[in-house]
Design goal:
With 283 residues, the protein is α+β, with helices and mostly antiparallel strands. It is built from 9 helices and 10 strands. One of its GO terms (biological process) is dTMP biosynthetic process. GO terms for molecular function: flavin adenine dinucleotide binding; NADPH binding; thymidylate synthase (FAD) activity; thymidylate synthase activity.
């Protein structure tokens, strides 16, 4: 099911705003979000989810295009199918889903790993993505536009609406933007609350928890429980293996509009690790 919501929205003392969204949209338009380099993003990987579970999701809630455009030259369809033509197109789309599910099952029975078997059903899958950024204007300009594919245009339009309506939380220098973590009770999202006692004096504890939850695209573990120990364990595993993208969402408010990675005015947690980037200069 399509969805868009703000997970965390913060503004530093000099007016730089950092907003984290949770988005759900068709897997087949995911590449259109990935082209925007100002975004930090993590998504629920289809490689990590058992094929049977994904097949059940597709069977119960398959992606359907938002606009059934008529075939014509160019990248955009100006007219939509109607009547019997529209119903026929929908039936063909769903028939293809059934064939893909059958083929995925056959691959599973043949002993093929889920990272291959799952790919066959991706056109009918939704994907959930965490996006954090301090600059959204270009995204809104390009994707909330009549020329954009309707499925991604819906997402951009909902994001723009939420962004305009929401009031960011004012943070002082040194305070943290921590998606999926609340540090005070009574916020309306007490299920995300992490107490100072649980932090055990670790000043980066909240950032670690937020990092793990952004990597998992949920405040719950994969078995559906809230487990801070598992959050810390995942954080340490990610840092040890050099998987740094989830470390970009949590960030510390700066007192100036300095750039840290792809953020302005917010020091990404990732940038606090000396080995967060590996590379070499070409001769």
């Amino acid at each position: 099911m399509y969805g868009a919501k703000i997970i965390k929205d913060s503004i530093n003392p000099v007016g730089d705003r950092l907003t984290t969204f949770e988005l759900t949209y068709p897997r087949f338009v995911h590449a259109e979000l990935m082209t925007h380099r100002m975004f930090s993003r993590n998504s629920a990987s289809s490689r990590a989810i058992p094929t049977k579970k994904l097949m059940a999701r597709v069977e119960e809630n398959p992606v359907m295009p938002k606009w059934w455009g008529k075939n014509q030259k160019g990248m955009q369809a100006r007219e939509e199918l109607e009547g019997d033509e529209l119903e026929n197109a929908k039936n063909i789309w769903l028939a293809a889903k059934g064939w893909a599910l059958n083929c995925a099952q056959m691959l599973l029975e043949a002993g093929v790993h889920k990272q291959i078997a799952n790919r066959i059903i991706e056109p009918w899958m939704f994907i959930t993505v965490i996006v954090s950024a301090t600059e959204y204007d270009n995204w809104f300009h390009l994707r909330d536009d009549p020329g954009a594919q309707p499925e991604i245009a819906w997402v951009a339009r909902e994001m723009r609406k939420l962004y305009k309506e929401n009031k960011p939380n004012k943070l002082d220098i040194g305070e943290w933007h921590t998606p999926y973590v609340e540090t005070t009770l009574g916020s309306g999202r007490d299920h995300l609350f992490v107490s100072p006692e649980e932090a055990k004096g670790d000043p980066l504890f909240m950032a670690k928890i937020a990092t793990a939850r952004c990597a998992r695209v949920s405040y719950l573990t994969h078995d559906g429980t809230r487990d801070l120990f598992e959050d810390i364990r995942l954080h340490d595993k990610l840092s040890g293996n050099g998987h740094w993208s989830p470390f970009e969402h949590a960030a510390e408010a700066d007192g100036e509009s300095n750039r840290y990675g792809n953020f302005i005015g917010w020091r990404q947690y990732r940038k606090m690790f000396k080995n967060e980037h590996r590379g070499r200069r070409l001769p």
